[in-house]
UniProtKB/TrEMBL annotation:
It comes from Holospora curviuscula. The keyword ATP-binding applies. GO terms for molecular function: ATP binding; ATP hydrolysis activity; transmembrane transporter activity. Keywords: ATP-binding, Nucleotide-binding. One of its GO terms (cellular component) is plasma membrane. SMART domains: AAA (SM00382). Residues 2-249 form the ABC transporter domain. This is Choline transport ATP-binding protein OpuBA.
């Protein structure tokens, strides 16, 4: 599904702040896998996601999605293959637009957005069906402005918007970091449900070790721009979320 081969990324080239962020990185993610990446601040996690999403290109190395070399594909081309939910619910949604308008906008991801009619009965029905997946009543509030929603509701909507199109890979960037514990648990349960229902290949960045252990098929530890440790499903199932062994490579 996704393969990175000997990928190197340097930021701040030619400046005193020049730094090699990813250093000969290799990883392979299978179709339908839920991979979790952990690491300390500055380990290269955000750069990894920017690389996969097409926001940046590597200095060297190759990126393959579905067996195709996409190393130098444009962000628009990559958006048809990769979608992402970010940490801040406010960043993933548009407060001045309605729930329907946000969802309809997401349905056009990776496509040209022209002057064609925005509202259609088909889109209304489709948005209503997708919002019902969350089980929090958003399907009955499609005309309401997103700015009226709570953080948890907006993050749930962000998740729906990310899977509105049939992208191959879903990136989850600390999606519960801005939420309270109750909404954090709820969003992760919804995420697991949606990822399973839509059979998405998923990569998640988190500092929540309990979530990493519970939801990840594998857990990879990123340090100094390379993966230094892998916990398989069998290994992570035996690892308490606060065991110091989990942090030994950070």
């Amino acid at each position: 599904m996704l393969r990175l081969e000997h990928v190197t990324v340097t930021l701040g080239k030619g400046t005193p702040l020049e730094r090699k962020v990813l250093n000969g990185l290799n990883v392979q993610v299978k179709e339908g896998e839920f991979l979790v990446v952990v690491g300390s601040n500055g380990a290269g996690k955000s750069t990894l996601f920017n690389l996969i999403s097409g926001a940046i290109t590597p200095d060297s190395g190759k990126i393959y999605i579905l067996g195709k070399d996409v190393t130098f594909s444009t962000p628009m081309e990559r958006s048809r293959l990769v979608s992402m939910v970010v940490q801040d619910p406010k960043a993933g949604t548009i407060a001045q637009m309605t729930i329907f308008e946000n969802m309809a906008f997401a349905l056009k991801r990776g496509q040209k957005r022209g002057l064609k009619r925005f509202f259609t009965p088909y889109r209304w029905t489709l948005c209503k069906e997708k919002c019902s997946i969350l089980g929090i009543g958003l399907e009955h509030r499609l005309k309401e402005f997103v700015g009226n929603l709570s953080g948890g509701q907006r993050q749930g909507l962000s998740l729906l918007m990310a899977i509105a199109q049939d992208s191959s890979i879903l990136l989850l960037d600390e999606i519960t970091a801005a939420l309270d514990p109750i909404n954090s648990d709820r969003i992760m349960e919804l995420t697991a449900k949606i990822v399973t229902q839509y059979q998405r290949t998923c990569i998640m960045i988190t500092h929540n070790m309990a979530q990493a252990i519970r939801y990840g098929d594998r857990v990879l530890v990123l340090k100094n721009g390379t993966f230094v440790k892998e916990y398989t499903a069998a290994e992570k199932s035996k690892l308490p979320p606060y065991d110091r062994a989990f942090w030994e490579f950070l």
